[in-house]
């Protein structure tokens, strides 16, 4: 007997949206498809404004995304660490950012010590390296973490797109000179491009605004979406895309063209900065060069909004009523819908289901990726409709044609819109061939 994940056992509370969130959704700038769908379909629940409970199916998608990012960072030599979320304010006073950033959660412990909940960790990383005996032989060094971050948003909105607590990947690089720092920067940003391409959602890498982070070079990664808060401009002449914050008097800084630019909105899902000694200098974060002289390390930082990528992907790919996932991070790849209980097809459903699961489990990528909608008191049509709303990449229905010889299974390839009846062998071949297809974009 093959062990199967049964949908009825998954904690997935449907259609329960807090009234206060429903009210906010009526405000145009508060609305997002991703928040609506993730709440309605039991992927998350709001705990308080800007804070969400991520439920089992949401966690599966999040962990898949984290695994993709971990593999990417490991492939370029990144080393995973974990910094404290609770940061002594003295570190931010040393960098000078304590009065520059307004969205900080500030608190005191029982001894009167001032802390903040970390929105980012440049100060922690620089302070850590400053406590080490650093030789030029130890660099380049890239350390990163994937942890919860905190921001005291004035108006949290759009679900996970702008929340008070969120999951972020933040990497910090240290090099002995500017030339080496640029090489490291290029290595990381190239890997970012690979990650975003593999996710299969159309994105833009653009020159960005450094803001309170400081530094000499910055790039942003955006998904196009109507609810995006950033305005992206594309030069009609040189096709360069950049944040509107960098454009003055409608002049393209790349080619000097003056005039109107194509405009779209974007959700920022990643940001990279070449920081120079912006943080290493005030923390005396130094190394000893070949001649024995002490010099400042050159730093870079690289962020990916993990929960924001999750929500923004759904925002970009989905309709108002149906979720579409990047195929690599869909909670499950295959949903199987057996016949309704006590129907004619139900008489042979157990054997057909066993054969189907056995066949699909021969595909290595599908191990642990199959869920059976065992709510057989419901009609096939209703379960199929719910499966499509949730966006399972492949839905297999055991309908009337499983009674034929050979038995035919009804396959729905959700992202491509293909619906076809296939034998068991042809079904396995089709899914194996299309399992890693890029997404609809």
Q: What is this structure, in a nutshell?
A:
Helices cover 27% and strands 26% of the residues.
Total helical elements: 10
Number of strands: 22
Report how far the terminal alpha carbons are from each other.
Answer: 39 Å
Mean pLDDT over all positions: 93
Helix content: 25-40%
pLDDT < 50 runs, ≥5 residues: none
User: How is the biggest beta sheet arranged?
Assistant: 9 strands, mixed
Estimate the strand proportion. Answer: 25-35%
Q: Provide the structure class.
A: alpha+beta
Query: What best-fitting shape do the alpha-carbon axes yield?
Result: elongated
Gyration radius (Cα, Å) is 25 Å
Describe the structure.
27% of the residues lie in helices and 26% in strands. Helix 2 (33-40) packs across helix 7 and helix 3 (56-75) packs antiparallel against helix 6 (178-199). Strands 4, 8, 9, 10, 11, 12, 13, 14 and 17 form a nine-stranded mixed β-sheet that branches. A six-stranded mixed β-sheet has the order 1-19-18-20-21-22, with helices on both faces. It has ten helices and 22 strands. The two termini are 39 Å apart. The chain is an alpha+beta fold and 441 residues long. The chain is elongated.
């Amino acid at each position: 007997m093959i062990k199967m994940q049964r949908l009825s056992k998954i904690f997935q509370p449907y259609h329960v949206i807090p009234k206060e969130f429903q009210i906010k959704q009526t405000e145009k700038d508060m609305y997002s498809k991703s928040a609506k769908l993730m709440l309605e379909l039991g992927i998350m629940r709001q705990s308080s404004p800007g804070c969400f409970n991520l439920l089992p199916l949401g966690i599966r998608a999040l962990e898949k995304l984290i695994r993709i990012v971990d593999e990417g960072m490991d492939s370029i030599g990144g080393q995973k660490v974990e910094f404290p979320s609770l940061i002594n304010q003295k570190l931010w006073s040393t960098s000078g950012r304590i009065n520059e950033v307004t969205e900080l959660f500030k608190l005191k412990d029982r001894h009167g010590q001032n802390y903040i909940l970390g929105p980012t960790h440049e100060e922690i990383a620089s302070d850590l390296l400053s406590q080490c005996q650093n030789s030029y032989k130890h660099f380049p060094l890239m350390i990163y973490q994937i942890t919860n971050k905190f921001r005291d948003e004035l108006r949290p909105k759009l679900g996970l797109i702008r929340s008070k607590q969120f999951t972020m990947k933040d990497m910090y690089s240290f090099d002995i000179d500017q030339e080496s720092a640029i090489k490291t920067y290029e290595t990381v940003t190239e890997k970012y491009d690979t990650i975003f391409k593999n996710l299969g959602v159309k994105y833009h890498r653009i020159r960005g605004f450094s803001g309170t982070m400081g530094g000499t070079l910055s790039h942003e990664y955006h998904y196009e979406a109507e609810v995006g808060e950033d305005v992206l401009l594309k030069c009609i002449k040189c096709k360069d895309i950049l944040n509107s914050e960098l454009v003055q008097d409608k002049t393209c800084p790349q080619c000097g063209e003056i005039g109107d630019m194509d405009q779209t909105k974007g959700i920022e899902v990643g940001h990279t900065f070449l920081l120079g000694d912006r943080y290493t200098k005030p923390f005396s974060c130094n190394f000893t060069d070949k001649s024995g002289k002490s010099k400042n390390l050159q730093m870079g930082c690289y962020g990916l909004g993990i929960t924001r990528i999750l929500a923004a992907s759904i925002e970009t790919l989905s309709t108002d009523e149906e979720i579409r996932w990047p195929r690599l991070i869909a909670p499950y790849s295959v949903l199987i819908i057996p016949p309704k209980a006590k129907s004619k097809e139900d008489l042979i459903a157990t054997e057909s289901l066993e054969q189907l699961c056995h066949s699909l489990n021969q595909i290595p990528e599908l191990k642990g990726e199959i869920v059976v909608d065992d709510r057989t008191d419901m009609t096939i049509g209703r379960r199929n409709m719910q499966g499509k709303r949730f966006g399972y990449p492949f839905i297999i229905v055991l309908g009337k044609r499983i009674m034929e010889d050979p038995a035919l299974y009804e396959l729905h390839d959700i992202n491509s819109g293909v619906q076809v009846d296939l034998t068991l062998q042809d079904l396995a071949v089709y899914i194996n061939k299309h399992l890693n297809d890029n997404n609809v974009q």
